[in-house]
Specification:
This protein is mainly alpha-helical. The protein has helices at 2-13, 16-50, 71-108, and strands at 61-62, 68-69, 113-115, 122-124. A two-stranded antiparallel ribbon has the order 1-2. It has a two-stranded antiparallel ribbon with strand order 3-4. The longest helix is centred in the middle third of the chain and has 38 residues, at 71-108. The chain starts with a helix and ends in a 14-residue tail after the last strand.
Length: 138
């Protein structure tokens, strides 16, 4: 029974879509780290410099000695999210454009059927005789 359970799990785990999802999660985590570094190390320093040497990660609203709202870190996270969302948008837009081109190419492909001039049935383009009405077709 346990052996059967592990065999089923192995079959499930080795499916292509599960492996693709695992690769996607790993790449997504790495991409998240890249975006975080981009925001914190590249984008926010010049913005902080323009605004008078402000370090956004240090921006806090102190409610009392023990409680502080770190809205600067929140701003960094929001900017990271916007960058990731924009990157995903660009990726999906590219995929949709590619799919549209593929669909158009399929639609523009040479026809594989023609109509019989006598009975108007669809027949193979190479046919010399209609299989429906048995007429000779050019």
């Amino acid at each position: 029974m346990i052996k059967n359970f592990f065999n089923e799990f192995k079959t499930f785990a080795m499916r292509g879509n599960v492996m693709d999802m695992a690769v996607g999660i790993i790449i997504g985590a790495a991409f998240g780290k890249i975006v975080t570094s981009l925001v914190e190390d590249v984008i926010m320093p010049p913005i902080g410099w323009i605004l008078g040497n402000v370090d956004f990660s240090d921006l806090v609203l102190k409610l009392n000695d023990d409680v502080a709202i770190k809205y600067g870190a929140f701003l960094n996270t929001v900017i990271s999210f916007i960058i990731v969302a924009f990157a995903v948008f660009i990726l999906i837009k590219g995929i949709n454009t590619l799919q549209a081109k593929m669909i158009k190419a399929e639609a523009d492909a040479a026809p594989t059927t023609k109509k019989c001039p006598y009975c108007c049935s669809e027949i193979a383009i190479e046919a010399t005789r209609c299989p429906h009405c048995t007429s000779q077709v050019k």
